[in-house]
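Researcher: We're teaching a course module on how sequence relates to structure. For the next exercise, students receive a sequence and then see the predicted structure as C-alpha cells, so they can try to spot secondary structure elements on their own. Here is the exercise chain.
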Amino acid sequence: MVYREVNMIEIKEILLRIVSKSSIRNISDYLGIHRKTIKNYVMLAKKFGFDPYKDSKDMITDKLICNIKSSASVSKDKYLIPRNELLAPHKEKIEQYLKSGLKGSKIIILLARSGITVTKSSFYRFLRNSCESYKDKNITVRLPETEPGQYAQADFGRLGKIWDKAANKLRVAWALVITLCYSRHMFIYVTFKQDMAAVINGFEASWAYFGGISQLVIVDNLKAVIDKSDRCNPKINKTFLEYAQYRQFIPDPCNTAHPRGKPIIERNVPYVRDNFFAGETFLDINDCQEKATSWCSHTAGKRIHGSTGCVPIIVFEETEKDKLIAYSYDRYDIAIWAVCKVHPDHHIRFKNSLYSLPTKYIGKSVEVITHGTGLEALKRY
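Model: And here is the predicted structure for the students to work with:
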C-alpha cells in the first residue's frame, strides 16, 4: 500500500486542469494522484467558494490554495491504493486470460470470484507495467490533426560542437525544438545545457517568437522537467509546473521510451540537425542562435511540409497565431525550491544564507521558494 501527500502546487494544478475541462481520470494519470483525492480537493474548493467547473482560473488565489491545503483531512486508510504485490502471484493466470482474448473488465470479475479485489485503474496499471500480453504492439496509427493553438511538442536534440567563448573551448550544443502541432511551425533554442534555466529560457524565447502560447505542451521526459518518468504516474518538476501555471499552459509528459507519443517533434529533431546545423560554421552560440531563428522563418517555415502539404508559416500566420494564448513579454524569474530543516537556533540555511523562524518550527522541515530576489515564501512541509 502506498500514500503520499499532495503539495500546494499540485492542488493548484488540479484546479487549473479542471477549469481547462480536463477529466479527473486524465488529471489522475498525469499527476499520479488518486481520483478520490482529486475529488476531495474539488469538494474543499467548493467549500471555500470556488467551483472549478463554473468559475474562472483568475479566482484560484494563493489564499484559496492555502485554505484547501490546511483543511484537507486525508485518511490514509481511505485512499490506500492496491500494490502490484496483490496481483503478482496471479500474473500467469492473468496472462492466460489475456491470450485467450478476454478483456480486462472480464478478468477483474473472474479475479473477484477468487477473492482478489482491485480497482479498475490499479488493475490496468499492473497490466501495462507487468504483462507482456497487454503491452503495446509495434503498430503505428496516424493521429488526427489538432485544433489551431491547441498543442505544441518539445524535445531536446544534440546538434554538435560550437565554440564557447566563456570556456575558451569547443562544447556540445543542444537544440530545444518546440513545434506547433497544427501549423508545424517551429522554433529552435540553442544552449550548452539542458537544465531548468535552459528549458524555461527556451520556452520563453519560443513564446516570444510565436507571439503566443499553446494550450498544452507535450514534453519528452526531459530530466529538468520530469522528476519521475513513469508510464502511468509521471511526476512533473515543481519549478516547471509553477512556470506552466504562470504562462497558463498544461505540460503533458510523454510515455517513457515511446517516440510515437510525439511523432511531430521526433522527426523535427534530426531535420534540424541535418538541414540547419550540419556542415555549417558558427562564430559562437549567439551566432548560431541568430541563424537558427532565421532558418526557422525562411527555410523550415517556408517549406512544403511532407505530412500536411502546406507551408507552415503561412498556416501559422493565417490560422493558428490568433488562437494562441496571449504572451505578455514580461520577465519570468525562475523559482528555486528546497526543503530545509529548522535548527535549534531558530534558523534555516538556504543558498548560503540564514533565515530565522518562530520557535514552534524548531525540528521541523519547511518548504522554501525563491525567485532570485531573496526568500519569497516559506511553507510548512
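Model: If you want an answer key for the exercise: The mean pLDDT is 81. Residues 162 and 343 are 46 Å apart (CA to CA).
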